[in-house]
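Hey,

The postdoc asked me to send both predictions to you directly instead of through the lab channel. I've kept everything plain text so nothing gets mangled by the mail client. Protein one:
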Amino acid sequence: MSGKWTQILGKIFGKKEKEEKQAGKQQAGKQQAEQTGQTDENLEKSDREKILYKDMDAFIKKKQEKDENATKEKAMPLIDECLRSMENMKNIVEEIKNEKITGINKRAERMVQTNKAMFVKITENVLNTDIDKDANISEIKAKILKTAQTCGETDIQYGRYVSVVHSPMENFRRNLKILANNAMDLNKMNIGQYEEYKILDDKFNTYISEKKRAAEIKNLLMDFKRELSNNQENLKELENSEKFGLMNEALNERAKVLAEKDRIEISIYTKISSVSRILKKIRRKNNIIEISLYIDNPKIFLERNDNEILNFLKLPADLNKEEREKILTYEKNFSVIVEEKKMYKEILEREERTNEDIKKYDVRDEIKRIKTDIADINLKIKQNKKDTERFEKNIQNLQIEISEIKEKLEDKLNVEIGMDV
């Protein structure tokens, strides 16, 4: 804000002499050095006042208050001079306001009157700004700069018409120039803001937050590892348990039972299928529907009476010699599949008992759940390690930034700041 105004004032009233400007820079540099506690003969860092970081806020406020008082004390002559110029300008505007317009034609008079009215209205309003000398220097500077800027802009826009008929405008402009120059000098008298402290505070708070989060992640990693260890121990214990052994025995027994069951079913299927052609002839000759059961599904023998198919084969049919020989062979070996049928019944009973044992001792779902948990925890641990690395890197970068900002602030305040980074 003040930068824009001083640029406008500079354009209105021109630049000061080079020597004056240089002197102003030197004065500002000296003033800045005094405000920040820096001199050409800085004390050694080891001899600096030591300030704990927790006390920095109060220290900065006290420092700024001291800077404010020192700057305001030096600025008071300029402020008083600015106020005198403003008071003079206010009296001049009142004089212009009351002075009649003479010596010009009606048309020009109307134009001057219109511009004069605007000039008086704006300048009276801004020159009546209440400036409290007890306020802080920044507030006073802002009001004086605004007054000088507004009066300068108003003079450019309306004052040229007013100056045609009102000679006090020359005096108004002399005072305005004094006000503008003093306002620009006043603007150079800055109070140390110590932006480094604000940046340091933000960085340090982020650093504390990141450290806290990193610690939480590390604790979480320890929890994951404990959970992983517990699951692995539970899995090992379960796989070495008697229940697991009995389950495996039951599963092996069922595999044997199913293999024997398949063998018997295939044997019976093969033997009965070999006479399916003969059975079809007998069915056509005797019109017996039940024979279709053996033709369509030879294993139906395992569910029906042992002698049923033998009785079917003894029924008359127009069989050739080869077919009759097959029947004789089948009758001769019939006792074999009858015995297999008996074995099949025992196999079914064994299968049922085995299934009951498997159900009783089955821990496969529990093992599967534990292995799934182990896999999930391993993924969490992997992600957790990545997060830890990321936070540690952020913390290292913050430590570097904090160290650099802290050093700048220490030099600026000529103190040594004690903080845990």
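Protein two:
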Amino acid sequence: MKKITYFFALLFAGVMLVQTGCNKDEDTPKGIKLVVVKRSTGDLYTVDKTTGDLTEIGSLTINGEPLTGLRGLVYDPDTEKCYGGATNHGGRGFYTINIKTGVATLLNEDTAEDWDGIADMILAADGNVLVNLYSNIVGESALVVFDKTTGDDGTHNEINDGDEDIWSTGGLTYGSSASQVIIGGNHEIYFANTTGLVSDTTALLPTANIDDEDVHVMDLEKDTDGTIFAMLYEYHDMDQYLVKLNTNTGEITELSVLTTAGILTGYHCLAFIPASKLP
């Protein structure tokens, strides 16, 4: 009798374990989706991480109109919302977004014109949002923490190497630790601390297709396995690519061509979001 009871106890425990695992699937890499947003329309897409193919799943709006001009997007598991930032060529401002419905709320419209567009963003160590933007306050690219409740922007810390200021073309993700970030540049990426002090640089290696005189790193996003996805824009050829980057060697692995008609028709906002939170 004891053996039979023990057997059913084990069976019950096994069933509970399987059920618990299924319920938490959204917390595994398979339950997290890579997304992008079309700059000119605010349309939201999931990305096939192997082929780079896009699947439209929804759209982002503000006051019933398309939210255009977005360049940065990050998901916050604490609030279960996204935060986004736009260029000064449309949609200018810092937003909170219900990614399930696509409805955005403007938190900071930058009435003082303290920055010329937000280029990318990640969650800051304190739970707020760390932003890469071009600052009109310091006159250079800068890292700035935005309060996710009020939308207020904090100190504008210019990106520099200790001697010279550095212009960032966009892109921001974490490096090897929470105290190191990777920032996009022209033909290169920078390794810096969270206040913008650059300590190292990796030059990007051209490919058969990505060989423009100016190749701008515009978006960066790190997967759970450490893979870095990026969007690269050939300024003169006007082509935009989705790629994987080896941040140590600068090697580029092409995934797909996103546009051949200029960045205004392109995509931004690389972000990883739980599948259950998407439309």
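Summary for protein two, as requested: The radius of gyration is 20 Å.

Thanks,
C.
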